[in-house]
Design goal:
Elements: H1 3-29, H2 32-42, H3 46-64, H4 70-92, H5 102-120, H6 127-132
Helix pairs in contact: 1-3, 1-5, 2-3, 3-4, 4-5
Length: 144
């Protein structure tokens, strides 16, 4: 990877990790907003959803902080945020508990950051990932 790609990837990794990391405290302590969200989505199983999602996000955050595993953290980020965004669009609404849409916007930003990490670190993906999306390869230059 060229220096610019490394910088872009690290910025996106930190953004995604920061957004997901700051929500972990609220999920794990049972704050009102996550309890409302997961009760709306899962009813009496809200704690399972809240802790399960929190665990996946914690793993994603940790994986994003290491270059060798950043691609896997990005996969978890994109998947988790896709689920969160779908929940907002189908069940929760864009504004949750008068937050002005903040959670929805943060979900979009984390999703995009995860997608950027996936794109920038696509060379780290296992062989099957490179076979699925060969068109994503960077053009060869004289500097390579």
């Amino acid at each position: 990877m060229h220096k610019a790609h490394i910088i872009v990837s690290w910025v996106a990794q930190i953004v995604a990790a920061a957004i997901m990391g700051q929500t972990l405290f609220f999920k794990f302590t049972g704050a009102e907003e996550p309890r409302f969200i997961f009760t709306t989505l899962l009813g009496r199983y809200e704690a399972y959803g809240r802790f399960g999602t929190g665990a996946i996000e914690l793993i994603a955050v940790l994986l994003l902080l290491f270059p060798r595993t950043a691609w896997l953290g990005a996969v978890l980020t994109v998947g988790t945020m896709a689920g969160a965004l779908m929940a907002h669009l189908t069940s929760l609404g864009i504004v949750v508990k008068d937050d002005g849409g903040t959670l929805f916007i943060l979900g979009i930003v984390a999703f995009i950051a995860g997608a950027i990490v996936l794109y920038e670190r696509r060379g780290d993906l296992p062989v099957i990932g490179r076979r699925i999306a060969p068109a994503c390869a960077l053009p060869k230059t004289a500097m390579n």
